[in-house]
Hints:
Elements: H1 2-17, H2 23-42, E1 44-48, H3 56-68, E2 79-80, E3 84-85, E4 88-92, H4 96-109, E5 121-122, H5 128-139, H6 149-157, E6 160-164, E7 169-171, E8 176-177, E9 179-185, E10 188-191, E11 199-201, E12 206-207, E13 216-217, E14 221-224, E15 228-234, H7 235-257, H8 268-277, E16 279-283, E17 288-290, E18 298-304, E19 307-310, E20 316-320, E21 325-326, H9 328-333, E22 340-343, E23 347-353, H10 354-361, H11 365-379, H12 393-398, E24 401-405, E25 427-439, E26 445-449, E27 454-455, H13 465-469, E28 473-485, H14 486-492, H15 503-514, H16 524-533, E29 535-539, E30 544-546, E31 554-560, E32 563-567, E33 570-575, E34 580-581, E35 595-598, E36 602-608, H17 609-615
Parallel strand pairs: 1-4
Antiparallel strand pairs: 2-3, 5-6, 6-15, 7-14, 8-13, 9-12, 9-15, 10-11, 10-14, 16-23, 17-22, 18-21, 18-23, 19-20, 19-22, 24-28, 25-26, 25-27, 25-28, 29-36, 30-35, 31-34, 31-36, 32-33, 32-35
Helix pairs in contact: 5-6, 6-7, 7-8, 8-10, 15-16
Amino acid sequence: MEEIQKYFIENVIILSQRDSKNDDYEEENALVDNQFKTKTNKLEIKKSVNSSEISSDSKKDNRGLEKKNNKLLNVSKSKDNNKGAELNTNVNTNSKGVNESSATAEKQFGSTLLLNSGVSKEAYKLTNAEKDFIRQTLVQHFLFKDTNNKIITSLINLMEIERLQPNQVLYEEKSVGDKFFIVKEGILEETFKNNSQPKLYREGETFGELALLEKRKRDGTMTCKENATLYSLKGLLFRNIVDKMNKEEQKERIAFLSLVPIFQSINKNQLNNIVLNMFTCTFESGQVICKEGETGYSFYIIKSGNVNCESKSGELKRILQPKDFFGEYAVLFDMPRSLNVRAKSKVILYKISTALLEESLGPDYRNIILKSILRESLLSSKHLSLMANISYYNEIYQKTNTILFNNDQQVPLEEYSNTNDEEDNRILYCIISGNFVQKLNNDEKKIITKRGQLFGEEYLENKNKNSLKKNNIYAEGECRVLKLLVKDALKVMNIKLKSTKKIISFFEHLNCMLKTEMFRNTSINKIIQICSLMKKEKFDPNEYIFEKGDVADKFYVIKKGAVIVWNNDKRIRELEKGNCFGELALLSKEPRSATLQAKDYTTLYVLEKNDFINNIDKI
């Protein structure tokens, strides 16, 4: 069994995830479909309304089944030795269910269900009890344990039933096998020419699984010991279904991984290769997934369920949920596992190995992932998301360096209270692993920055010096972070500020300008230059900004508050935060066409016409 499992892991998962554009595989599918069409054309299915056409033996054999399920199909065969074999099937009026199942399978998978010849076979619609029996058997089999439920249902619909009598041979050793079997009832024995111990198969047991992977010679001879009923599945049908269904599964996986922060900045080709080659693992509640101290060659993403992260002593550190990931620390930094991870409930995981990352992302995969984590942390920032712009974040990442905070180490905040602009070393930390916590008076801890988030933004313009002096921020666990000096990021973006203390105000201004209609199609580099020319003006409630007929020499963007537009004594409309007005002043010499008045306390960004004209060549 271990040999079979190893063979399966190496072959069937890759089979089910390989690119559908593979020429050989497409030819095989086309061959299967053509075979189906050829055989189907030879099938002549007729409804029989005359019970005399049904043989008396068939009536006797099937009387019990007809009482339980009035959907049994009765098949009679005739052969013409001169003209070749032609199957004539007489189906009673209760065969509608079978035809519907066949039509459904044909519609979904482009293949028509066939009534095979050989061992005594019957075609009839499976009862719900039989479907449940097959489903329970399949999901407990290592081959189908993590298979999509849609595929399981489709495989059940393609199952055929075969009946054997005592001493009847199902197949012989060295014969080519292309079917997988489930024993419904009875006993079968597999014997081997090398005198190995025979194997017995009873109700609920399976055999022939390798035929689902490829046509393969049987290891032994299978003989019926007692009257037996089997469910069978063709290997070519299985491979055809997996290929078609996998296209849908691949789309679902790509959509899922695209929501995981660590992959959101990776291109589609790289993501597709990871999706096609990653493994799916299932762990039952209480099972250990990885152990503290062991070498890690893979990391995991939770598809469903929850896991507990625990210290070696058993202390619960955190609970992870779907879309969370763990184990990346060991992969990125060649470090041993830092915690035990145990399934809290039944959990399904995507397992991604170091080798797969290197194959998909290249030898520099560590930097690509770290850069992706930094970009996502910047994008989720309240004010600094523009640092994640494609024009800047690659170079900004080059300005970072990785540092480690040990467990319970204090996070320094002195840089944020420095008043010397020449030594302005305000810092942003992107958390790669661990958490930053705030220690409360009652010895409790409050997580303030989690893995994948940005720390330090809230302190950039903190005017309350007491909150900086009372430093109670500490690392929880070993925290590895990317350290970024704010002034380095501003230099990359060509933002010239006398002090980084004004960075939040500048980025608010920048975001406000990006939302204005006038600058919607302007590059961010040009908007940064325009922002550097603008000044702030404040107005009290009901104060006039300008009146109709005034000289137009300024352009305005509302930072805070609201403005009322008047034409003579008629109120036209109201403008709010982010709106702009007076843009014609930059382009013409026409006087103001309306009067504008501050509704309440209002702050405006102002661009004077002379500044704009004098710098237009630079913008």
